[in-house]
Amino acid sequence: MKYVRTANRNDVQMVERFLGQANISAVGLEDSIEDFLVVENEEGKIEGTLGIERHGKYALLRSLVISPSFKQHHILQLFEQAQIYAKKREVEKLFLFTNKANFASFFELLGFVPQKIEEVPSEIQQSPYVKETFSLSESKVLACEL
Fold first, then answer.
1. Where is the N-acetyltransferase domain (predicted)?
2. CATH code of residue 74
3. Which of 3, 44, 97, 104 has the most Cβ atoms closer than 10 angstroms to its Cβ?
């Protein structure tokens, strides 16, 4: 059984290591750790992460990393939990960036709609994670109204 919980300050190093194993940037992690969802197994080992980097009424979904044992329905549950969490934090719109076309199609099935980069709020565009991790001209941007 998998357990989804909100990360806390004590999880920073463990989440950094997990992201590092997947070569995913941890920039800004410490500042937004309490808005990260962590999926653990029965032994407390991390098997998935999904970060929510809040910027006022907008948020950036980031750092989706899952272990090989993760099943498709677990990914759907993780996204559902992220949307519920964001709504509780009064986020009105979620954004995500991907440079993988097959992932964009998956996110569209979850209700995310392609956006032009010009339509993305500047606070999301200026996120250190976005600046470090993505080339905005090559990435697809998707958004979901909550």
1. 2-143
2. 3.40.630.30
3. 97
